[in-house]
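Lecture 7, part B: from sequences to assemblies.

Below are the input chains for today's worked example.
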Amino acid sequence: MANRDLTPAERVALARHPGRPGTADFIAALISDFFEQRGDRFFGDDGSILGGVGLFHGRPVTVIGHRKGKTLEEHMAYNFGMPSPEGYRKAQRLLRQAEKFRRPVITFIDTSGAYPGLEAEARGQGEAIAETLALLSSLTVPVISVVTGEGGSGGALALGVGNRVLMLENAVYSVLSPEGFASILWKDASRSAEACEVMKLTAADLLSMGVIDAVIPEPEGGAHENPHVLYQVLDTTLVRELGALEKQSGAALAAGRYKKFRAMGLNAVRKERT
Amino acid sequence: MSNINILAQRRQKLLALKALRSSPVVPAHKEEACPSCGKLVARRDLSDHHYVCPLCGYHHPVGAYYRLSLVLDKGTFRELEVNLISNDPLQFPDYKDKLDQARRRTGMGEGVVTALGRIGGYLVAVGALDSRFLMGSMSAALGEKVTRLIEYAGKNKLPLILFSASGGARMQEGILSLMQMAKTAAALERFSRKGGFYISVLTHPTTGGVTASFASLGDILLAEPGALIGFAGPRVIEQTIGQKLPEGFQRAEYLLEHGFLDAVVPRDRLRDVLIQLLRLHGKGGDIRG
Ligand SMILES: [Zn+2]
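Predicted structure of the full complex, as structure tokens:
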């Protein structure tokens, strides 16, 4: 891999790079005939989650991902990629359709976290994330999740219960942003670089812990330096992974996903006589 | 006396002892100021009222064993997975010491107690989180104990009751803490699809990853009066939006009004409400295999 010597803090910076390709770019590069589906049918449409149906190498797939946007107007419109409950409920709607129409699901994860706002709480941010986790865990179609940038907290995980969880080389995935982590644990957000070191949030760390299944290499200097190279690698990887999953029955896919997440943290517990 | 009675008595004694240690800290003096109304309340009055202020109704947070002693039939408490504890997976600085302190202070191995017991004669799988154990934060061990309880309930076709109280993620376990949200939610979804009946009781405070996973996935959602319930904590929200939050925001009554709870139930009514719900549901739906 081309970016072997970067520190965790440097990878966090790359994961947040304003030019880094996001969900909209991956859809444009990899999916043809894409139709964006909007709205949660309850309250509104949350642009910070982009979703719809399109063709991946000729077969229909449901694609759902966080969207930060590239310009200031887009950042505002998409709330810097921090979803509200409407975003997660839109995702649930699309996931139910994927199940109904037997379409594989591809998710792209890139958010600093779910939006911690007054309206988001009033409309049940916690419930929306919980229901998305439960639904995604039970689907009987293939689900591939790719952490592409920042994977922050429950707002990221809500789209991350895949049969296969892949991660771009310079993406990060953590229980909280390094700033939030430092602020909660040490009451000092400025110690975020230190937090990056202890949090084990890089793709290599997460691969060794069994939280992700594979790392997708990025071009030298990061994905934004040569996105087309990345699209090529991502395309090849998704074809291979999807091909393997599509051989399995629906029941086996649901069972396999359950088994995978059921095992999370088993090495982190032990029995002790007290 | 029969062996069964002796066993039941022994179980009751054990729970009573643990509950005593698990009730709010007892100061040496005989009265204390209520954190809500500020008036002095006799210790004895407080313990007689299940640690609810007799003057204003403020519900003091209580420990997991005490909580279970309030709702379970006498002599029916059988703790499950009592020895399952955290392994400090990230070798996180100072975490081992923090765990040791929490264990000594609470007499618990982790931030949740899971058990088999009876409520109004109904056999149930029941768990209670304890906010005194590192804020009831979600560790891999806590997630594992909750998941084993869910699976135990599914396997034995029992109703499931969980009392939540949590500050959110266990920072020192990083991503493995986060993954417990997916694990518990997935286990509950399986349980639910088999017809399992789950009552989630949210107590003060329930926030973060616990709110955004098992605490919100009950068939019935109950909360104690005044309980703070949310995904983001109030301080983070205030910092984000740059304004003060309205009075009562994220409290149980607010959630009830916004459609996220079935009922707000005072502590002295909780056991009766649970018995009513168990009576109405039996073991749950058409529970299969
Ligand atoms: Zn009072």
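Note for the exam: Chain B touches chain A through 65 residues (CB under 8 Å). Keep this in mind when comparing with the next example.
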